[in-house]
Amino acid sequence: MRILLSTYGSRGDVEPLAALGAALQAHGVEARVSAPGDEEFGALLARAGVPLAPAFAPVREWAKEMINRSRSASPEDRARLISGQAAEIVARQYAALSAAAEGCDAVVAFGLFPSCAAARLVAEQRGMRYMLGTFCPIWLPSPHNRPHEYPGHPLPAGVTDNRLLWEMDIRTKNALFGEAINGHRASLGLSPVQDVRDYVYGDRVLLACDPTLGPWPGSDLIDAVQTGAFILPDERPLPDGLKAFLDAGPRPVYVGFGSIAVARDAGAAAIDAIRAKGLRTVLAHGWAELGLIDDRDDCFAVGEINQQALFGRVAAVIHHGGAGTTAAAAQAGAPQVIVPQIGDQPYWARRAAELGIGAAHDGPVPTARSLSEALETALAPEAGARASSIAGRIRTDGAGAAARLLIELLDRTSR
Q1: How far is Cα 262 from Cα 259, in angstroms, rounded to an integer?
Q2: pLDDT tens digit string along 306-325?
Q3: Where are the domains of the chain?
Q4: What is the pLDDT of residue 26?
Q5: What was the pLDDT predicted at 406?
Q6: How far apart are CA 279 and CA 314, in angstroms?
Q7: Rounded to whole angstroms, how far apart are CA atoms 188 and 49?
Q8: How many Cβ atoms from other residues are within 10 Å of residue 263's Cβ?
Q9: Whole-angstrom Cα distance, residue 137 to residue 143?
Q10: What is 2-231+396-414's CATH topology?
């Protein structure tokens, strides 16, 4: 049995698939991951022992270009940019996945919507089993949550019926992605689909997030199965310099914003807020390229690091609210300050606040004052106690549960 796992996104999209690929291989399934061919992802998948089949392009520079092109654009221009990029992604990713899927029995797709559409097309053409996966409940049609709002397609003011909003979401996705998907279908001699969302979502969706952090109440609008987050075990030791820094004083506060290009002074604001409380800082450069503001010995900068080992030794974690970082901090019992930027990050910020394990920062651009106020909440004894309690409830077997589910589904359909 061979399964292709596909994604196009940042580290938060790739690392979970490395975990799922490793879990599948532990069950005797041949798994490969199609992901951006950035060097860091190649190293990540090699560490997991899962083969990499590069996607249509590396993602780091591509993401920066898209951010720069959309930064000053109007909502209508951003919508046109999304549609134009969707056509390119569907075509180029289809070609990449056609090669990657050679000999595979199924494809499980995560990441950008047009990338998943390409995976569905490849599965359809090859007669393979297809399944969509997602890392957050908000992307799934449900009467319990509103759909994501896209540029140029705002949700109507005053409408509180989520079912009606999800009906509107079908039209939005058709408007943004329909031409890209059906244009490529036409090039393959296939008839158009009327509902591209239903086409990409498929019959059943794999929800790969922790049920305590992101509970799924169920929905009659979609069939979804929740397995828990896909966590790749990390046995790498912390660098000697970082270990010496951690040992030299009280627990520091970790600051990292991953691949999100927050304001350049975000790192400085965080350091000022942390210093004002008499604490030390571990600052992650990340794709945001945050840097130290001086050479004082109360700050230590790191590159890509074993978060599982580090988060157990910090007083709090300040981050952007990616699903993976949120889960890693929660698993380590570290209180969180989440500064949400885009996508599902506001959801994870709200959940951290609702669970009492940290604070949701008000707005995407942090200042020393705003972070100081949020840290006050996260560093309170009750938040620490609550974070320690929640840590014991975070599932660590999500990848294994998903692997077993996929094997069962494939065995059932092959009979």
Answers
A1: 9
A2: 999 999 999 999 999 999 99
A3: 2-231+396-414, 240-391
A4: 97
A5: 95
A6: 10
A7: 35
A8: 14
A9: 12
A10: Rossmann fold (3.40.50)
- Token digits for 192? 């158009």
Q: Averaged over 106-110, what is the pLDDT?
A: 98
374-405 pLDDT, tens digit each: 999 999 999 999 999 999 999 999 999 999 99
Q: 2-231+396-414 and 240-391: same fold?
A: yes
Query: pLDDT value at position 69?
Result: 77
The Cα–Cα gap between 415 and 410 comes to: 9
176's CB contacts (< 8 A; 6+ apart) are 79, 82, 83, 86, 150, 153
Tell which phi-psi region holds residue 333, choosing left (phi > 0), alpha (psi between -120 and 50) or beta: left
Q: Measure CA of the first residue to CA of the last residue in the chain; give whole Å.
A: 13
Strand-pairing partners, residue 206, are: 133, 225
How does the average pLDDT of the chain come out, rounded?
A: 94
User: How many Å apart are CA 241 and CA 218, to the nearest integer?
Assistant: 47
Q: Which two tokens stand for residue 48?
A: 């997991």
Inter-residue contact 277 to 255 (CB < 8 Å): no
Of all residues in the chain, what percent carry a pLDDT higher than 70? 98
* pLDDT at site 393: 97
For 35-80, write each residue's pLDDT tens digit.
999 999 999 999 999 999 999 999 887 877 777 777 778 989 989 9
The answer regarding whether domain 240-391 maps to CATH 3.40.50.720 reads no
